[in-house]
């Protein structure tokens, strides 16, 4: 089977894709406003603030206040993009998000940078490994986790046209930029990147590229055909695309830069359990293995070294694939 190849077009920060898209939105939609908690340079919001000072609000290190102001601006039919680090955008302000944004279904876009282990040297106090779980449990909250610069740009544009609260998660370091520059981002629609008959790999965020690289190695060295699916939207989850794939492969590995409690893998396990229960064939079974952080806080270190240490890099994906295939029911 001929495998589709994705080329790394160069390393770029996903947060830079957000900043560029935000500036574009500022020029094309006068309802878009931006709020920041003293991190506008880190989130590439500088250009927006210079071009549209009347629509940029520097709140300072007062994230709870920022969420309340964003909720208020949405009442005035503005589209607020509130930006800070993922840890501060969730743990520090969960009450305000729940009460002022999610409960009343405000049209606020919570833009969370520096997520996961790849925040790197700032260490455990800043690395957010539980944010997806926290946000996906809020009724009505859409949760998006983008994989590269181009996809983050497209996602930022897409959520401006979507009414409702959104949690947009992206990262700090330069990573492979491999998706299409002209892509149309469809909220809630997973993307099958490569087709395969042996095993399904469902991944999100920075681990999408790691999954593609693992898939390439497995095919070239062992002839294993992996079906790699980019799940950029954690909620609502594209159940149909995932179930269609596992109907073919009968096994799955999920890969994410997040604690395995509350993340993508747990969401996939839920739909597999429901699907298994509804199948008439009592012998029908699916093996799933989760590539995720094993219920532990992070630490300081270089991003790629941390992925390796916490067993969520491409080599770990390969090991999980081989384990699943070894135990797959024939």
Automatic annotation (TrEMBL):
Q: What range(s) does the Transketolase-like pyrimidine-binding domain occupy?
A: 12-177
Q: Which cofactor does it need?
A: thiamine diphosphate
Highest rank taxon of the organism: Bacteria
Tell me which SMART domains the record gives: Transket_pyr
Alphabetized, the UniProt keywords read: Thiamine pyrophosphate
Q: Which InterPro entries match?
A: PDH/Transketolase (IPR051157), THDP-binding (IPR029061), Transketo_C/PFOR_II (IPR009014), Transketolase-like_Pyr-bd (IPR005475), Transketolase_C (IPR033248)
| Record family assignment | Belongs to the transketolase family.
What protein name is recorded for this chain? Transketolase
Lineage, top ranks? Bacteria, Pseudomonadati, Bacteroidota, Flavobacteriia, Flavobacteriales
């Amino acid at each position: 089977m001929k495998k589709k190849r994705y080329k790394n077009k160069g390393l770029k920060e996903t947060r830079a894709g957000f900043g560029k898209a935000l500036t574009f939105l500022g020029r094309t939609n006068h309802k878009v406003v931006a709020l920041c908690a003293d991190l506008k340079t880190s989130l590439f919001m500088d250009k927006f603030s210079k071009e549209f000072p009347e629509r940029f609000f520097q709140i300072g290190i007062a994230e709870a206040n920022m969420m309340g102001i964003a909720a208020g601006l949405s009442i005035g039919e503005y589209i607020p993009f509130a930006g800070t680090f993922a840890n501060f955008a969730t743990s520090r302000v969960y009450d305000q998000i729940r009460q002022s944004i999610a409960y009343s279904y405000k049209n606020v876009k919570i833009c969370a940078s520096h997520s996961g282990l790849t925040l790197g040297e700032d260490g455990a106090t800043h690395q957010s490994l539980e944010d997806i779980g926290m946000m996906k449990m809020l009724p009505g909250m859409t949760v998006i986790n983008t994989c590269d610069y181009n996809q983050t740009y497209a996602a930022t544009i897409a959520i401006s046209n979507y009414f409702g609260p959104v949690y947009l998660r992206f990262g700090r370091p330069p990573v492979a930029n491999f998706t299409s520059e002209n892509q149309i981002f469809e909220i809630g629609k997973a993307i099958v990147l490569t087709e395969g008959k042996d095993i399904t790999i469902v991944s999100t965020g920075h681990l999408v590229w790691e999954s593609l690289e693992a898939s390439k190695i497995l095919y070239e060295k062992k002839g294993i055909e992996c079906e790699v699916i980019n799940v950029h939207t954690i909620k609502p989850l594209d159940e149909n695309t995932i179930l269609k794939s596992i109907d073919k492969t009968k096994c799955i590995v999920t890969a994410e830069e997040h604690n395995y409690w509350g993340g993508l893998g747990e969401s996939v396990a839920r739909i597999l359990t429901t699907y298994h229960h509804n199948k008439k064939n009592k012998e029908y079974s699916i093996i799933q293995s989760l590539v995720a952080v094993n219920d532990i806080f992070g630490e300081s270190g270089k991003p790629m070294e941390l992925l390796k240490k916490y067993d969520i890099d491409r080599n770990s994906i390969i090991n999980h694939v081989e384990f699943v295939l070894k135990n797959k029911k024939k």
